[in-house]
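User: My instructor asked us to take a sequence, write out its structure as tokens, and then describe one feature of it. I'm not sure where to start. Here is the sequence I was given:
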Amino acid sequence: MLLAVRGRLPRAGLVAGCAIVAGSAAVGALAYVPALAAAVGTAVLVGLLTGLSGAICGALLQTQADPACLGRVTSVSSLVSLGLTPLSMPLAAAAIGTWGLGPVYVVSAAVCGLGGVVALAVPGLRRAELPG
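Assistant: Let's start with the prediction itself. The structure tokens for your sequence are:
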């Protein structure tokens, strides 16, 4: 909603990459926050950062994809983001049962953070812009 009110977002690729890295760090920290109020604050931060990065990535995907392939690209993106998530939940639950919550959160955060690192390391992704 803030993005809609804000309007154009300069340096969208850079903002997305930074939001992914910061959101991933917050996810990793969430398992180790000792107090309820701090956990709530961290969870709000996770929501804001991952929501921002998700909105920017979705917009970049739709504006940068070839219009002839946009339906297929969006379908694959939706399948990966929405279709694989329920399948990974039993694996995460088993991993938490084996190694505990903290290590699983940290590994998950590291995997997600790699996406942000790639977005920041690849010049074309880092410099990606949304149409004005």
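For the description part of your assignment, you could build on this observation: The two ends are 18 Å apart (CA to CA). Try explaining in your own words what that tells you about the chain.
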